[in-house]
Amino acid sequence: MPTLLSWLGKTDLDNMSQDSSAAIASIALKHEQPFEQILILANAWDEKWHQYEEWLKRRLATLSRPTEVKIVRAHINSPIDYPSIGREADKYIGKLANESDQLFINLTSGTPAMTALSVVLGKAKENVHFVQATPDNKLIYAEIDVDFSRVYNKSAAHQAADRATKVPKPQAGFEKLISESSKMQQVVTTASNYAKAEVPVLILGETGTGKEVMANAIHQSSFRANQPFKIVNCGALPENLVDSILFGHVKGAFTGAQKDHKGLFESADGGTLFLDEVGELKPDTQVKLLRALQQGEITRVGDNQTRTVDVRIIAATHRNLINMVDTGEFREDLFYRLAIGVIELPPLRERNEDIAALAQHLLAEINDNFKQLSGFKSKKISENGIKFIESQAWPGNIRELWSTLHRAVLTTESAEIGADTLKNSVIKRQSIAETESISLSYGDSVDVNFLIEKYKKKYVLAALKASGYKLTEATKMLGLNNHQTLKSWMEKLNIELPK
């Protein structure tokens, strides 16, 4: 026989005083099959519990439905406290679902929090059903065709995928930046000085070196730390909307401008605006940016009013702005306004002392991103895995390491990520192409043999390091026929294997 579980509602008690049914009584009396027991959870109106139990038993007896009716105390903090309601509901739903052929849960009585958690927890049990009573005491059996576990896992997977495609989480302040290497220690010292000085800062570095993380650390270590930190990728700004996005617009300024809009400069007022890939800005926008830096003033699109803003600019680019100034692509006066403080982030291949700690930090974040996925088990990197990571050049820098670790985590069933898994997770580059053109003027001289030997030595050293100093692997990487040729090269180039 089935069981009915319900929270006690005030309407149930009020109607009892008039000897009329509310939700609990209606369900108990009109359900097609008599209930073996009715368990009611309550946390208030203690003085009426016994009276209600006896009244409901009498009403059931008149229909020859002898049923055990019991009200029990639910130890909850308040009728809207989800954690305590969840604990009590889970306890009784689990117990009754195991003991009964079928468990029906009343969704009409109690607070919305009680109803919501009853549905979520009840859906996890195959023999749980949901029933409601209308104001005129008709029964409605609710078919909730939602697989909550599937929806939850889909949502968790979507969130993890969203985090995976972004950069690692910015760390607050310099103290949490990984800087064991001397190069990074020098960068952090310089950046710390710039942070306190409130000057504009230009961050240079290859793609994936962590320019946004550094910008966030400068902001968090400045006097503006409690004010807004706004980020915009200048390379992703639509050409026809760039002024509106940066400086705002007034209603009617252009088709679709249905109301006044604050731009990023106004949104960041009092704080910091990070202009990522600033080298992508068009010349006319560079002029307006220069004015904002020089005078602290902006004008919304379509407006005649000038607005004063107090915004610190941190800009970043992977492009060579000096070359762009020489070719006229970037304004010289804007460059020197931005480059009062200059930070050049070293590529990962020049931060070997940081790589192990950085890999462990990134893996911890990846584990945290995926922890809500059903069946996911956290991974760790083995000792030989760390050695492999340290041996690689990582031309894509931190971002490449980040994505490689993601692939390694998702493609191994082992709790430990080893060198073999990482090797299979690295995206192989088919060839390294020389992108710089070479030109000579009549009469110029060059020692080709010296250049050949110089670059040969660099590539041999790089291949040896990347292969873990395994001659067979290094030979394949260099496209040589056999490792004897490699040995011969090493002798001529005075290259020895580490001991």
TrEMBL record:
Locate the Sigma-54 factor interaction domain: which residues?
A: 177-410
Q: Does the keyword Isomerase apply?
A: no
Instruction: Specify the superkingdom.
Output: Bacteria
**TM region positions:** none
Gene3D superfamilies noted in UniProt: 1.10.8.60, Homeodomain-like (1.10.10.60), Hypothetical protein VC1899 like domain (Restriction endonuclease-like) (3.40.50.10770), P-loop containing nucleotide triphosphate hydrolases (3.40.50.300)
Q: Does the keyword Nucleotide-binding apply?
A: yes
Q: Which UniProt keywords apply?
A: ATP-binding, Nucleotide-binding
Q: Which InterPro entries match?
A: AAA+_ATPase, AAA_lid_NorR, P-loop_NTPase, Sigma_54_int, Sigma_54_int_dom_ATP-bd_1, Sigma_54_int_dom_ATP-bd_2
Q: What is this protein called?
A: Sigma 54-interacting transcriptional regulator
Q: What is the lineage of its organism?
A: Bacteria, Pseudomonadati, Pseudomonadota, Gammaproteobacteria, Alteromonadales
